[in-house]
Design goal:
InterPro entries: AB_hydrolase_1, AB_hydrolase_fold, Carboxylesterase_BioH, Epox_hydrolase-like
CATH architecture of one domain: 3-Layer(aba) Sandwich
Mean pLDDT: 96
Radius of gyration: 17 Å
Strand order of the largest sheet: 2-1-3-4-5-6
Pfam families: Abhydrolase_6
Keywords: Hydrolase
GO molecular function, one term: hydrolase activity
CATH topology of one domain: Rossmann fold
Organism: Deinococcus piscis
């Protein structure tokens, strides 16, 4: 039976992208706090000075739920890798019979499918390279693919992540399960979902965001002119969509 949340949560949890950290959400944190929300933006293990590594998405979801996130209902926001992790949090809550803890979820520039073998192999190559050579090659790739203002922000965060944390996250993403069933059940159980995506996102394009909305019975919002890191490319448009849905 589908149930509809009666009130919007007063807390929002924002999960960051790879290979960045919680600072990528600075503009969104400011906007949501101005709208009256409490905002939690954790650094994931291996990023932003947080110790440890993301050995699996499930393990990281357990760490978040048991040690980082509030007991009262909260809205969950994840972008790219943060979206994969948000789906893992939803999966774990479904297993525990606690889906009421997340009445609202925002999946930004992400998708619910697992990696195909070619993508898994590519992530492993990157993991081996970063362990051997460091992450500067990721900074250079981002400089070629991202808007200059976005690349300037991502370079600092990428350089400050640990090599081991980056490699572990790559392997955790490669090993993740297909979570389309989780997204479908979330919609059936009354979780309200917003799928956000940049119109120019080449990594997780709008059609994949449309699938997220369709599976969950949720809403699609396209951020015009934004690429894969839509919150950094077009922060004002992203903030408006986010605040309208959450606050």
């Amino acid at each position: 039976m589908t149930s509809t949340p009666t009130a919007k949560p007063q807390t929002a949890v924002l999960l960051h992208a790879f290979p960045l950290d919680a600072r990528m959400w600075d503009a969104q944190k400011t906007a949501l706090e101005a709208a009256g929300l409490r905002v939690i933006v954790p650094h994931l293990p291996g990023f932003g000075g947080e110790s440890g590594e993301m050995n699996s998405l499930k393990e990281t979801a357990e760490w978040l739920l048991d040690h980082q996130l509030p007991e009262e209902p909260f809205s969950l926001v994840g972008l790219s890798m943060g979206g994969y992790l948000a789906l893992e949090v939803l999966a774990l809550l479904q297993e525990r019979g606690q889906t009421e803890r997340v009445p609202r979820a925002v999946l930004a520039d992400t998708h619910a499918r697992g990696d195909d073998p070619d993508k898994q192999a590519d992530r492993e190559k990157q993991a081996q390279k970063v362990l051997a050579e460091g992450q500067e090659f990721m900074v250079e790739t981002a400089r070629e693919e991202q808007k200059p203002s976005t690349a300037e922000q991502t370079a600092r965060m990428t350089r400050e992540a640990s090599r081991e944390g980056i490699a572990a996250a790559l392997r955790a993403m490669a090993a993740r399960a297909d979570r389309r069933d989780v997204l479908r059940r979330a919609g059936e159980q009354g979780v309200q979902v917003l799928a956000l995506v940049g119109s120019e996102d080449a990594l997780t394009p709008p059609e994949q965001a449309q699938e997220n909305a369709d599976l969950s019975g949720g809403e699609l919002k396209v951020i015009e002119g934004a690429g894969h890191l839509s919150n950094l490319d077009e922060p004002e448009a992203f903030n408006r969509a986010l605040a309208e849905f959450l606050s």
